[in-house]
Amino acid sequence: HSGYPASNYASCFDSWDEALRESGVKERFETESRESSDERRKEMINTVQSLYDQLDRVPKSTELPEKYSPNEFYTEFGSWDEALKAAGIDKKQAILDEIERVAKKLGHIPTTTDIHKHDAYPASRYSSCFDSWDEALRESGVKERFETESRESSEESREEMINTLQSLYNQLDRVPKSTELPEKYSPSDFSREFGSWNKALKAAGIDKKQAILDEIERVAKKLGHIPTTTDIHKHDAYPASRYSSCFDSWDEALRESGVKERFETESRESSEESREEMINTLQSLYNQLDRVPK
Fold first, then answer.
1. Is 56 helix (H, G, I), strand (E, B) or coil?
2. CA-CA to 224 of 20 to 30 Å: which in 235, 247, 257, 290?
């Protein structure tokens, strides 16, 4: 294409490269090429950022517009992850945000199965950023948040159950039975939370043993004498098994309630009063008759 023979160039310059440099052609084209490359790189970065904003998640290389192929990004940036990094997209944080999104959607700590079903990213994306799923959950804050909420919910539920027992105790004026719980609860709920019904009563500050002793006292006052097990069975609100679970014998229950001692004392005092009255009657007769009465 030139009007000069090659010998003319060789006679003026030590090399073709020197001729290109001195002509300014090489620098101009290299500058234009570099600027074109920079503009293209910038355009590619803008494309990735636009995709990220549109999808509201980290885009996949397969989601690029038709004008680009994944290979072009691999050639320009070295890898898709490097392209994301150049676009200012924190892939790791985006994954953590996605874990949070799925957790909120499900209402519990997501499993890898949950993530596979509801997440926009393949499982391999997580393994490339975290050593384990547990580590990913910890870093996302999801695990700690749900465990804290679960603990607080459990504490609130436990407190509500205790309040229910205390309310029942006050309404019935005696130790409630597990079968007397409101419909919203079942005895198994309390056994699961406290270990047993008796432990639930203890947590509610209800002294079952003292309540039983009070009940013995109530029945004794009602009947006016030391109650027998038959009396208790007939008049008491508690089954006989309740007593055997707290005392070795019925006699021990009576002694601890104070009923036996009180009635024995009253009986003894009554007997002494009756004896004294009988003596006074004999003495009065003797004085009236002025002789030994018959």
1. coil
2. 247
Which string of b and e fits 190-204 if b means at least 16 CB within 10 Å? beebbeebeebbebb
Residue with tokens 């079903």: 117
Burial of 234 (0-12, 13-18, 19+ CB in 10 A): exposed
Assign 130 to helix, strand or coil. coil
Query: Does residue 281 carry a pLDDT above 80?
Result: yes
Q: What is the DSSP string of 175-208?
A: PPPGGGS-TT--HHHHHHHHSSHHHHHHHTT--H
Q: Tens digits of per-residue pLDDT, 162-192?
A: 899 999 988 888 788 888 888 888 888 888 8
Convert the pLDDT of each residue in 186-240 to its tens digit: 888 888 888 888 888 888 988 888 888 888 888 888 888 888 888 877 876 666 6
**Whether pTM exceeds 0.70:** no
Judging by beta carbons within 10 Å of its beta carbon (0-12, 13-18, 19+), is residue 263 exposed, middle or buried?
middle
Percent helix, strand, coil in the chain, to 5, is: 75, 0, 25
95-117 residues labelled b (16+ CB within 10 A) or e (exposed): bbebbebbbeeeeebbeeebbee
* 239 three-state secondary structure: coil
Strand blocks (E) in 111-237: none
Label residue 29 by pLDDT band (50, 70, 90). low
pLDDT at residue number 89 = 86
Of the candidates 172, 215, 170, the residue with the CA atom closest to the CA atom of residue 180: 172
